[in-house]
């Protein structure tokens, strides 16, 4: 059981890094016209938009143009990763 928890613990940063890169790529795609409408853009949008939309509801664009909500979303994602890793550490210590 402990071995499985350790493997999951080691996998978590990789999964969070992959999702962070998906968000970054999706955000950068907004700078290039019509890229979000491509097949890759649509797929990345289905993965990224549900998470980003949470922050867009609460953080309006600055000056109606500059959307800083993705930056906040990336910071929150890092905090969530740290929290999950901490909980796994506590769980592994409790079981071991």
List the helices and strands and how they pair.
Blueprint: H1 2-29, H2 39-58, H3 69-95
Helix pairs in contact: 1-2, 1-3, 2-3
InterPro entries: CCB3/YggT
Protein name: Cell division protein
Keywords: Cell cycle, Cell division, Membrane, Transmembrane, Transmembrane helix
Concise summary:
By secondary structure, the protein is mostly helical.
Structure description:
The chain is mainly alpha-helical. It has one domain (2-95). 78% of the residues lie in helices and 0% in strands. The protein has helices spanning 2-29, 39-58, 69-95. It holds the Pfam family CCB3_YggT. InterPro entries: CCB3/YggT (IPR003425). This is Cell division protein.
Shape verdict:
elongated
Overall structural class, as computed from helix and strand content, comes to mainly alpha
Distance between the termini: 9 Å
Radius of gyration: 17 Å
Low-confidence segments, given as residue ranges, are none
Helical fraction equals over 70%
Query: Mean of the pLDDT scores?
Result: 93
- Major sheet attributes: none
Number of continuous helical runs: 3
What portion of residues belong to β-strands?
A: under 5%
By DSSP, the count of extended strands is: 0
Order of helices and strands: HHH
How many separate domains make up the residues? 1
């Amino acid at each position: 059981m402990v071995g499985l928890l350790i493997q999951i613990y080691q996998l978590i940063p990789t999964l969070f890094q992959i999702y962070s890169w998906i968000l970054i790529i999706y955000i950068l795609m907004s700078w290039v016209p019509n890229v979000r409408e491509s097949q890759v853009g649509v797929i990345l949008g289905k993965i990224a938009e549900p998470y980003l939309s949470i922050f867009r509801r609460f953080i309006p664009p600055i000056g109606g143009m500059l959307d800083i909500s993705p930056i906040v979303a990336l910071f929150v994602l890092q905090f969530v990763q740290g929290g999950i890793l901490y909980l796994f550490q506590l769980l592994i210590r409790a079981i071991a």
